[in-house]
Write a structure and sequence with these properties.
By secondary structure, this protein is an alpha/beta fold. It is built from 20 helices and 16 strands. The chain has helices spanning 4-16, 21-39, 55-67, 87-97, 112-118, 139-148, 186-189, 201-205, 209-215, 241-253, 264-272, 281-288, 309-314, 333-348, 358-365, 381-388, 396-410, 444-457, 462-484, 490-504, and strands at residues 46-51, 72-77, 102-104, 121-125, 153-157, 173-177, 191-195, 230-234, 257-262, 294-298, 322-325, 353-355, 375-377, 413-416, 421-424, 429-432. Strands 10-9-8-11-12-13-14-15-16 form a 9-stranded mixed sheet, sandwiched between helices. Strands 3-2-1-4-5-6-7 form a 7-stranded parallel sheet, sandwiched between helices. Helix 15 (358-365) links the parallel strand 12 (353-355) and strand 13. Helix 2 (21-39) crosses helix 3 (55-67), helix 10 (241-253) packs across helix 18 and helix 19 (462-484) crosses helix 20 (490-504).
């Protein structure tokens, strides 16, 4: 069973993985026609299609074309030809016009009753997934007329028009594509037939731009500062650049406010962007332009996170929507003791947390800190061993099983970084290979953590945040590689994040 949103994800990812929507529509319409011909034995009959203006209607156009070879087919479009919304539906409608098929449009709405009476089979291909709310006219009236007819076979395409409303088509059969959609049953859909439309296996198993397009929350026109996500990043110590890279990535992903709580020396470096941490000087100057947008809080110690800092950090709990902890913190004993208390503090207030880098070791020693909490862990292979005590197999399938098992055992989302990234919440699992060899450069993991925390701050759930983030990070890396080849550095990836958003949103 699959949700409407996940079907849209698959459609977009199929295109990304070289199976165009045009091919999927052809497979859907052909599958529908084969069901009617081969299983219902409908041959030399009068078949009436009601087709909408979107891709559901396009599926009907394809089926009508195939069925017209041995049947008398009539198509009623619920609109006019120039109202057809998608290119592929328009193309399939043009093919119908060249065949011996009677075509009516909304101007002939008064003939519907007569068309229904003359038909042997009625196909509802008006509205598909993605349409919600009560039916508008003329769909509302057409559905009522279809339902009045008790003696004709009725088939709905993918889902019945008006699905989950008070006025929906009551079909004898529903031919649905790829998988049954949520809430479909015999009562509201009749007998359900699943047609395989050949969505590529990679689009099913791997992430792509579909996740980004479907689940990224677009800002509302009347939103104001702070409504699109506030992030707190706790990091820095022996490694100055890590929390800065995470913060810039979170900014570029669209969060409104980014707070950084970090030791004094790191705070001073981030706010000044001296060439001590960013080279070359030209790049330091470019990044300095956006550093004023960060809200940097100096902690007590010059070099490391200490227990005294927790009092300062408590002041951020009610200001932020997500926490990222770990980038560049180091493994000082004092710091490690603080990490556990900070994570517990934020999780107690139901704030989602990304645990990265040096913080992973802490929760690996005490799983109760994160058990069944709203947490994303972002380990690489060695950090996964620190988290679980398990050395991962080189075999991908075995590795997938292990990650899924531990995600379920801990009740969290794990984003394992590797040659093939693995994202799992213990129930659902996705893979990613959108990246390149130049991304082994230091800082790319910090960028990924920043993107992930930004998405969490926007209210995206943990599993979706992780799979969107890994795609954005990898695709931005690929865009950077086209420009910089093997000279890519982490800040190049950050600068490409807006281009990924621009391309797929």
């Amino acid at each position: 069973m699959i949700s409407e949103k996940e079907i849209k994800v698959l459609d977009i990812n199929s295109e990304f993985y070289k199976t165009p929507a045009k091919k999927l529509m052809e497979n859907a319409g052909k599958g529908l026609s084969d069901f009617i011909k081969n299983e219902l034995k409908i041959i030399q009959k009068n078949i009436l299609f009601f087709c909408g203006m979107g891709n559901n209607g396009g599926d009907g156009f394809v089926a009508a074309r195939h069925l017209s070879q041995k049947n008398n087919v009539t198509v009623f479009i619920v609109g006019k030809e120039n109202n057809i919304k998608t290119k592929i539906s328009k193309e399939n409608f043009q093919k119908l016009k060249k065949l011996n098929i009677k075509i009516y449009n909304i101007e002939s709405i008064g003939k519907i009753k007569d068309l229904i009476q003359k038909s042997d089979l009625i196909v509802d291909s008006m509205l598909g997934i993605g349409i919600s709310g009560p039916l508008r006219e003329p769909y509302n009236s057409i559905v009522k007329q279809i339902n009045k007819e008790k003696n004709k076979i009725k088939i709905s395409v993918d889902i019945p028009t008006g699905f989950k409303t008070d006025n929906s088509v009551k079909p004898h059969y529903t031919v649905t594509f790829h998988d049954v959609k949520f809430d479909m049953d015999k009562k509201n859909c009749g007998i359900i037939k699943i047609v395989d439309i050949k969505i590529p296996e990679k689009a099913i198993r791997y992430v792509g731009p579909g996740e980004l397009n479907v689940y990224y929350p677009m800002p509302k026109k009347d939103s104001h500062k702070g409504e699109n996500g506030n992030v707190l990043i706790i990091g820095g110590g022996p490694y100055h650049g890590a929390p800065a890279l995470s913060s810039f990535a979170a900014q570029r992903t669209g969060s409104d406010l980014i707070y950084i709580a970090t030791p004094k020396k790191v705070a001073q470096a981030i706010t000044s962007y001296s060439p001590l941490i960013i080279k070359p000087n030209k790049l330091a100057k470019e990044l300095a332009k956006i550093s004023p947008n960060l809200i940097v809080k100096e902690l007590n110690d010059e070099n490391v996170l200490i227990e005294k800092d927790i009092e300062i950090i408590k002041g951020f709990v009610n200001k932020i929507d997500s926490l990222l902890i770990g980038p560049g913190l180091g493994t000082s004993e004092r710091t490690q003791r603080c990490i556990e208390k900070i994570i517990r503090l934020f999780l107690k207030q139901n704030k989602p947390v990304v645990i990265d880098a040096d913080a992973i070791k802490v929760v690996g020693k005490n799983h109760s800190i994160i058990k069944n909490k709203d947490v994303i862990l972002t380990p690489h292979l060695n950090e996964f061993k620190e988290l679980t005590g398990v050395k991962l197999s080189k075999d991908l399938d075995e590795r997938i099983d292990t990650v899924k098992k531990w995600a379920k055992k801990l009740g969290v989302t794990i984003l394992l970084k590797g040659p093939v990234d693995i994202i799992s919440n213990g129930e659902d699992t996705k893979l990613n290979d959108v990246h390149n060899v130049s991304m082994t450069v230091g800082g790319t993991g910090d960028v990924l953590a920043g993107i992930t925390s930004s998405l969490l701050s926007k209210g995206v759930n943990s599993f979706n945040s992780a799979r969107i983030a890994i795609f954005i990070n990898g695709y931005a890396g690929n865009l950077a590689f086209k420009k910089r080849s093997y000279g890519v550095i982490a800040t190049d990836i950050i600068e490409e994040i807006p281009n990924v958003l621009k391309q797929y949103l």
